[in-house]
Amino acid sequence: PIWMDEVECLGNETRLDQCAFRDWGVHDCGHSEDVGVDCSQEPVVPVEGQLRLSGGSKGRLDIYHDGQWGTVCASGFDEADARVACRQLGYCCGVSLGAGSGAPVGTGPVWPGDVDCIGYEQRLDQCPGIAWGNTSCSRSQDVAIDCLDGATCLSRGVHMYSPGDTGLKIYVSGISSVQPQAAPRSTDSMFVLSCSSGCSNSTTAFLAVDCNLPSHGSPNGTRTAAVELQPAGSLGLWHLELDTSSLMLGTYFRLCVDADGSDPAMSVGDTGLEVYVQALGLHTSVVLAAPLQDVELNCTQGCNLNSSVFEVFLSVAAEGCGVQLDEAQPPPVKRTHVGIPNLADSKDDLWSFVLDVSGIEAGAHATLCEDFDSASGTKRPGPAAGRKVYVSGAVVTTTHTIRRQPFQDVTVECTVGCDTTSWGFLATNCEEPLVGRTSPGAYLVGKTPNFVLDIDATSLEAGVRYKLCTDLDGPQERRLKA
C-alpha cells in the first residue's frame, strides 16, 4: 500500500510520522510516484543556539551550545519563553508544559537557567537572564513545550505576534494650538502658541507647506525663516513673530517646530497645526437671512476682480470653510452657494459679492470663506480676514432715537428667527459689551414680524450712537450677536 501522502515536515521532527500528512492510507498517488531519499550525505552540523523538540511539535526542549546538545531548566520558564522558543522553531506560538510532562529524559548538560524572555525576541538565546550551565536544576526539571499552528493559536487566544517596525515615524508635539489660525501677509505676523511641554527659549518654529523643506533653497513663497519662541507671560503660552509677507496667498501652511533649535539632537517636526494666509479682508459685518445680500471685501495684494479666479461663500459649519455644498439639504443649510461678483459696485480694491443667505439660520455667526483658485484649483478654501458675519433676522427698526430714561420702546421688524424668547439690548460692541456702553437686556414683545423691545437707557451715555443687538435664542445661551 501507499501509506502516506502530502507529507509536510518542519525539519525538526525526529520521526517521519511526526510530520503532518493526510492520514494513513489516504492518498491519490500511484506507485509511479513512490518517493526515494538519499541519506548518504553528511549530517547537518547544528549551529549555536539551535533548538529541537523530542517529539514533533511537542516535547522536551533541547538547545545546542558550546558544541553539544543540552536541555533547558523548567524553573521560571513561562509562556513568554515558550512563545519565543516556538517562534524560533517555525511555529506561530506555544505554551510551556513545565517539567514532568512525560517527555523522554534528556541527555547532556542542563544548559540555560533563569530564562526571562520579554516575548518578542526571535531566538531563545537572545532573551535576558540566560545563565549557561549555571543552574541547580536536575534532570527531572527539563522543560517541555507545546508549539501550535496559527489557527490553534487564534482559537485559544494565545498571543502570536511580536512588535515590528512599520517603517513609519510619528512626531510627538508639545504644541496643542496656534492663534490666530488665519492671517494676512505681513512682515510681523504675531502668533500665540500653547505648549504644555518641550518648549523653551531655544525652540524655533516656522511656517511651510511641508516641514521637510530646507531653510535655504526652497521655492519662493513656500516657507518662512525659523524664529525662536518668546515667553508670552502666561504658563505654557509662547509668542512667535514671523515674516509672512512673501508666503503664497490663499494657502494653508504647516506649523513646524524644532524643540531644541540649532541643537542637532532633535529634528524638525510637524505639529499637526495649520495657518491659512488670507487673500481677502472682510468689510461687511451683518447680512440678513435673505437673498441678494451684498458682502464687501478688499484685496490689496496679488489679485484683482477681473483677472483673479475667486469664489466666496458663507459657512456656519463646525468644519468651517472645509464644508461641501449639499444641494439636497433642506434649510437651514451649513453654507451658501458661491457669491456672484457685483461689478457695478466694485472699484479699486473694494469688491462686492452678492450672496443668497436665505438658507442660513438667522442668529448664526458665519465665516466668510475664500477660494483663491476656485473649485478647479488645488488650494482649499480658507477664512477671509476680519470678524465673522452675523446673519440677522431683524430687517428694520423704525425707532432711531430714544431718551436717556427707562421704558424706551424700540420697534423692530423681524421676518425670521425672532419670537418672544429672543433677547435684545443696545451696546457699542455686541460681542464684548462694556460697562457703561451697554443697556440691560429685555425680551422681544409681539409676534412676527412686528416686535417691541423695552429698553432701560438710564445707564447709557447721551450723545452716542448704539448698535441694536439681539440674541435670538435668549440670554441663557450667552451668545451675544450683532
Explain how this protein is built.
Helix content is 4%, strand content 31%. The chain is mainly beta and 482 residues long. The longest helix is centred in the N-terminal third of the chain and has 10 residues. The relative contact order is 0.07. Strands 26-27-30-29-28-31 form a six-stranded antiparallel beta sheet, with no helix packed on it. Strands 1, 2, 3, 4 and 7 form a five-stranded antiparallel beta sheet that branches. A five-stranded mixed beta sheet has the order 9-16-15-11-12, with no helix packed on it. The C terminus is likely disordered. The chain contains two helices and 31 strands. A hairpin with a 5-residue loop joins β13 and β14.
Low-confidence stretches: 477-482
- What's the overall geometry? elongated
Number of strands: 31
Strand content: 25-35%
Alpha-beta content class: mainly beta
Count of helices?
Answer: 2
Largest beta-sheet details? 6 strands, antiparallel
SSE blueprint and pairings:
Elements: E1 51-53, E2 58-65, E3 68-71, H1 79-88, E4 93-98, E5 112-113, E6 131-132, E7 144-148, H2 150-156, E8 175-179, E9 182-184, E10 189-195, E11 204-208, E12 227-228, E13 230-231, E14 237-242, E15 251-258, E16 269-278, E17 281-282, E18 286-288, E19 293-298, E20 311-315, E21 340-341, E22 350-355, E23 365-371, E24 382-383, E25 389-392, E26 394-397, E27 408-414, E28 423-427, E29 442-447, E30 450-455, E31 467-471
